[in-house]
Design a protein that fits this description.
serine-type endopeptidase activity, mainly alpha, rhomboid protease, two-stranded antiparallel sheet, 217 residues, 3 domains, EF-hand-dom_pair, membrane
Length: 217
């Protein structure tokens, strides 16, 4: 009845009035999330699949947490229009626009990042990688293309097809790098992208994601 053309979308106002008049009202927190999603698109519509995912709790827990714990009334202006921001806030905004395609998600990210607890995981991993590289660079007396050194593959940290039984190598190879270029690029990405993400999602989620990537690699 509400979608005679079978588009899969209805206006958010129509949906909200239907929810409020229904004998089994939707959970207010879930309604807030759905309205936030609708406000994130240009047409202000509710998608049927988003509703199904929300009711069945398929929506990402990070989005739910942001809605539940954050300010419900976010500024309506585009995030890029905010003035008077310090260097750090401008950096967080830059990261939001680099990794998030939706303006609503960008604003949630911008207002939900936290400095406490500090993002220690990504910082510790990056620092360890730098220390390990410096140690091997001094030991091998080689700073570029270290893998060509005959002693490189003897390291207990490197993944080696002949030593698959040594399970720790599937993780510890993340501390080894070919040279300064690879180390610098990895460290830059980890600090610029990983640290801000850890400030939003926390150490447990970001460490699980990072280590899953290491295992997949």
């Amino acid at each position: 009845q509400l979608d005679p053309e079978n588009t899969g979308f209805i206006g958010v106002e129509t949906f909200a009035s239907l929810v409020h008049s229904h004998e089994l009202p939707l959970d207010p927190a879930k309604l807030d999330m759905l309205v936030a999603l609708a406000q994130g698109n240009d047409e202000g519509q509710v998608c049927y699949q988003e509703l199904v995912d929300l009711i069945s709790s398929k929506r990402s827990s990070s989005f739910k947490r942001a809605i539940a714990n954050g300010q419900r009334a976010l500024p309506r202006d585009v995030l890029l229009d905010e003035t008077g921001l310090g260097f750090y806030k401008r950096f967080v905004r830059y990261v939001a626009y680099e990794i998030l395609p939706c303006e609503m998600d960008r604003r949630w990210y911008f207002y939900q990042h936290r400095t406490c607890p500090p993002p220690v995981f990504m910082a510790a991993v990056t620092l360890t990688q730098i220390i390990v590289f410096l140690c091997y660079g001094a030991r091998l007396n080689k700073w570029v293309l270290q893998t060509y050194h005959p002693e490189y593959m003897k390291s207990p940290l490197v993944y080696h097809p002949g030593h698959r039984a040594r399970a720790w190598r599937f993780l510890t190879y993340m501390f080894m790098h070919v040279g300064l270029e690879q180390l610098g690029f990895n460290a830059l990405l980890q600090l610029m992208i990983g640290v801000p993400l850890e400030m939003v999602h926390g150490i447990l989620r970001i460490s699980f994601l990072y280590l899953a990537g290491v295992l997949a690699g």
